[in-house]
Sequence to fold (353 residues):
Amino acid sequence: MRASLPFIYTANVVMGRKKNPQEVQFFDVVSVDIPEIETAHAPVGLVWREGRSAQRNEVRLHDGGFYVPASRMQRDASGFPVSMLADLKTLSEQMAQSIGTALGYKIGSPEWHAIYRYTGPKAETPPGRDDIKKLESSGEAAARARAEAVAEGLISIDGIVYRKVEEPVIAVHCHLDAGQPNVKVSVFTGPRRYNAPLDLDQDIFVADPHNTRFFSVLEAQDALDHADSIGLPVISGFDEVPEVVIPDVFAFDRRFDAAERTAEFAVEGLKAGIARFDRETIEHWVDVREEYYRYLETGSREIVENLASEALPRLFELVGRTDQSAATALEAGLGDWDEGTISVPVFGDGNRP
Fold:
């Protein structure tokens, strides 16, 4: 079915008769052909229940990919028929917000609310690009690319919109809730990048390898045992261990993921404050950065494996001379890479992103 996915972008512009530039939110859409699939061709691969109502959540499989209902809450899946994307005038507020969440907008943000403001039966007229007198800068390209990526991952299963996600894993995340440390365990289907959204409802992001660890859904009990062993209150996103219906499709490699995430944290997590280290540390960090960027270009696992075996342990030693909390994050990831032989305390020395 031919459909449209709306998105919001911000530009710094001089509008109409105004003399000074201002930030303005603009509305646009990307067009997409959404494949229409029958349930028989998209079997359930994973099921878990959460909350007092034991709400059933599922991940379906199709053509080698993982899919979840595009509605923000799975219980509302039936309220997002594909016809809403074929005619945006029929888009409900709840599903407009679901689109905002899928696009990565912070819940409650102006972008998140703006999707519905310019769609639905009472849509307002968005700012017109014809009124732009001067364009200072624009986030359109990045926002459009993100919308296109989400749109390309949409399918319709028996008329209901589903979106493509990453392979589901179990996330064990240490964070502060109302000033109190706790451990949250949940099924996670998003990107496992450093600082990627982990829980938009609570404004939680993927932290360093010390405070965020991932387990295969086939290792859900191990994840729960690990959470319990930390000694902090545990908040579980499921009442029972998730049911893996089709185990053969889940191939998450926790050991390699730990190495990859440690390399990423070494580069992205240390980048902003790298100047505080001595020359030897900075020079070694630059070497790690170049190798990591080469990995991003080539996708060669060997690069990450070599980094985890040699360069990252050395960086851990060098960083530890100046910043023990950053070293702790590296140590935790390397411990998971090395079969968990290194153990570090949770929330060591204020180590948070």
